[in-house]
């Protein structure tokens, strides 16, 4: 009989711990808008909805300062492999324009001379000109583009339901572990309570 009483208390404790953690997780996201509790006149709102702007600003700053900057993005874009591809595209585009615009009466030998000259010019000067242009773009982008502000605006533009679904999809397993842990702790507390009742 005593064992049954202890087990009942343990099961009740497990249920309380499990349900409490489920409610606590829900309160991270809900309610989306402030709700006033009558009589005590206290407003409650989900943690993320309440602090979304602060979180968006912090995430933007962390990404810009610690993870990636405008300079790093542009450096990645202008790696040698990308430059070579850009040069190839430029040559192909110019050659296409020359072939299209030059009158058909011009001998193919002369056209080939023009193609070769253009290709040599692009090969010898194109990369330098392109790098100079990119450096100017980097300077302009660094002064005008604020990656942190872009990220902040993007997060703030999300619907709260979308933010909730993103977080849950990422941390689904961890949140489930928290729920289960609440049940386990509640079960253990229930056993301890039962033992204390028996002893005292």
UniProtKB/TrEMBL annotation:
InterPro entries: DUF445 (IPR007383)
Keyword Membrane on entry: yes
Transmembrane segments: 6-29, 180-199
Pfam families xrefs: DUF445
Keywords, ordered alphabetically: Membrane, Transmembrane, Transmembrane helix
One cellular component (GO) term of this entry: endomembrane system
Organism superkingdom: Bacteria
Protein's name in the database: DUF445 domain-containing protein
Organism: Caloranaerobacter azorensis DSM 13643
Keyword Transmembrane: yes
Subcellular compartments: Endomembrane system
């Amino acid at each position: 009989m005593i064992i049954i009483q202890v087990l009942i208390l343990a099961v009740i404790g497990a249920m309380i711990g499990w349900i409490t953690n489920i409610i606590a997780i829900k309160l991270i996201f809900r309610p989306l808008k402030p709700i006033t509790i009558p009589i005590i006149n206290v407003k409650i709102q989900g943690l993320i909805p309440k602090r979304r702007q602060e979180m968006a600003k912090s995430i933007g700053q962390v990404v810009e300062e610690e993870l990636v900057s405008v300079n790093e993005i542009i450096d990645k874009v202008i790696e040698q492999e990308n430059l070579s591809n850009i040069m190839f595209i430029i040559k192909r585009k110019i050659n296409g324009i020359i072939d299209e615009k030059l009158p058909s009466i011009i001998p193919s030998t002369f056209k080939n001379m023009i193609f070769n000259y253009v290709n040599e010019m692009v090969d010898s000067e194109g990369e330098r000109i392109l790098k100079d242009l990119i450096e100017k773009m980097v300077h302009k982008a660094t002064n005008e583009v604020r990656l942190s502000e872009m990220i902040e605006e993007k997060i703030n533009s999300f619907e709260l339901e979308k933010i909730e679904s993103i977080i849950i999809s990422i941390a689904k397993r961890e949140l489930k572990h928290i729920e289960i842990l609440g049940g386990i702790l509640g079960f253990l507390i229930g056993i301890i309570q039962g033992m204390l009742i028996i002893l005292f």
